[in-house]
Design a protein that fits this description.
Layout lengths: L9 H21 L5 E3 L2 E3 L15 H31 L33 H7 L3 E13 L5 E17 L3 E6 L1 H4 L2 E7 L5 E10 L4 E7 L5 H4 L18 E6 L7 E13 L21 E5 L11 E3 L5 E8 L9 E5 L4 H8 L17 E6 L1 H7 L4 E7 L4 H5 L6 E5 L2 E2 L3 H8 L7 E9 L5 E9 L6
Antiparallel strand pairs: 1-2, 3-4, 3-6, 4-5, 5-8, 6-7, 7-8, 9-10, 9-12, 10-11, 11-14, 12-13, 13-14, 15-16, 16-17, 17-18, 17-19, 19-20
Length: 461
């Protein structure tokens, strides 16, 4: 039986390791696979299982592995140093020790923190405000002149919105835009419970696009009265750009709807803005122009006269107009409630206007024609009714109205055409006295303003 053994001779003692290496290498070279004997040494080839071939590892894999290893090591070091530093400096947060407070890193530069929560849920505000908002339907008669000069009439229906602002012993008072009720034959108000009643005009101011209408309490049921409410008016002078805004109105005449946004701008000049009917407010002189609130809350036809509300549920504006066009988006406008509060109060205290039977209506005693916006600008004249003739013995002559005067208002309501003047006279009976505002030409080419009292005649003067 073969035996394996080691020979401890003087050669090994002189350099055992180097000698053994030489022997083994030479033996391996002689018989790599079968082994052999060299002198007194026997070479035995290594077992196949013990032979490990050197595998080639791609450079990219080695690079990624080193990067990951470096990241883990550096992250662990940073975490450990940071935690130890926080404990030494007393900045340790026991509730979340692994997160560094950013306000403590930059020395004196501390981040601003707030406990306020911004939410898009306005359902609670809307629930409180909606009972004070109404839909308004205006039934009117429009006159159209054809190519041959013949005038025909047709019925027209338009929709708008109003806000309940007061309740007296006899009436509910509702504020809206003048253009919502202009030229009306019949006004219908629909409350939040879908019940509808007719309303009468209390007073209007076309220059500022404001009107107040009245609903008799006797025409409103007790059940409806329990569901509606009087709106809370806010202070529009305290508004800030960027604060929330909510618009509620009868959009497109489909019933009350809600849109939300922010206050986009303040003190926007009304003379530069188109109204819902695409009419530019050119009749407003600069000093009398209303400064509007701009909002990106959607304002659509039918929203006019509706409420623009703040986050407290207070009415801060009366939605009135928008800029429409393919290149324009999110530019709606509202009349600031504080700017027209005095006008609203004055209109609320006027006598409610009820139409007089046709045979009982009073006559002013003048002939005239319209001073439209184009003529007003060209000839530096106020818009209204130019008096071309004063009927002898009529109420106008007795009150001192002369040819060349321009009638601009009657009973506190601005008139811009002969049609509008006749509409207003439908509310006054013959023998009744009414205030008429006239513009009188001056020697310097300007116009002075005067209000006279006219006792209306019966048309036979």
């Amino acid at each position: 039986m073969d035996e394996r053994y080691h020979y401890y001779g003087p050669e090994i003692q002189r350099g055992e390791d180097s000698f053994r290496d030489e022997v083994v290498e030479e033996a391996a070279a002689r018989d790599e696979n079968h082994g052999g004997t060299y002198g007194s040494f026997q070479y035995v080839p290594p077992r196949q299982a013990e032979v490990k071939k050197k595998r080639h590892v791609p450079k990219l894999v080695r690079f990624v592995g080193m990067a990951v290893l470096f990241g883990l090591v550096s992250g662990g070091v940073f975490f450990g140093v940071n935690m130890i530093g926080n404990r030494l400096l007393g900045n340790d947060d026991s509730t979340n020790p692994g997160i560094t407070n950013p306000g403590d890193i930059a020395g004196n530069a501390v981040l601003t923190r707030s406990s306020s929560v911004v939410t898009s849920d306005v359902s609670g505000i809307v629930e409180d405000v909606m009972p004070s908002v109404v839909s308004i339907t205006n039934m009117s008669v429009q006159q159209v002149q054809n190519f041959f000069g013949r005038v025909s009439q047709y019925n027209s229906t338009s929709a708008g919105t109003g806000i309940i602002i007061a309740q007296t012993e006899e009436e509910l008072l509702i504020v809206t835009n003048y253009h919502v009720i202009a030229g009306s034959e019949t006004l219908t108000v629909t409350f939040c419970d879908k019940t509808s009643v007719e309303a009468d005009v209390k007073g209007s101011d076309s220059e500022h696009d404001i009107a107040v209408i009245a609903v008799p309490l006797q025409s409103v049921s007790g059940d409806t009265m329990s569901k509606i409410a009087v709106a809370t008016l806010g202070d529009s002078t305290q508004l800030k750009v960027g604060e929330p805004a909510i618009a509620i109105g009868n959009a497109l005449g489909y019933g009350q709807s809600v849109t939300t946004g922010v206050i986009s701008a303040l003190d926007v000049n009304s003379s530069t803005v188109n109204s819902e009917q695409s009419m530019v407010a050119t009749d407003m002189v600069d000093e009398d122009a209303v400064k509007l609130i701009q909002t990106d809350a959607a304002i659509n036809p039918g929203n006019s006269g509706g409420a623009l509300v703040n986050a407290n549920g207070e009415v801060i504006g009366i939605n009135s107009s928008k800029i429409a066009g393919s290149k324009v988006e999110g530019m709606g406008y509202a009349i600031p409630i504080s700017d027209v509060s005095d006008i609203i109060h004055s209109l609320m205290n006027q006598k409610t206007k009820h139409k007089v039977e046709e045979g009982e209506q009073g006559y002013l005693g003048i002939r005239g024609y319209d001073v439209i916006a184009e003529s007003s600008q060209r000839y530096n004249m106020p818009t209204g009714v130019y008096v071309s003739e004063v009927i002898k013995g009529g109420g106008a002559e007795k009150a001192g109205i002369q040819k060349g005067n321009i009638i601009t208002a009657i009973g506190g309501t601005r008139v811009e055409s002969m049609t509008a003047l006749k509409k207003e006279l439908e509310y006054y009976a013959k023998g009744e006295t009414v205030e008429v505002t006239i513009a009188i030409p001056q020697s310097d080419g300007e116009y002075g303003k005067e209000t006279v009292e006219v006792t209306l005649g019966d048309g036979t003067d």
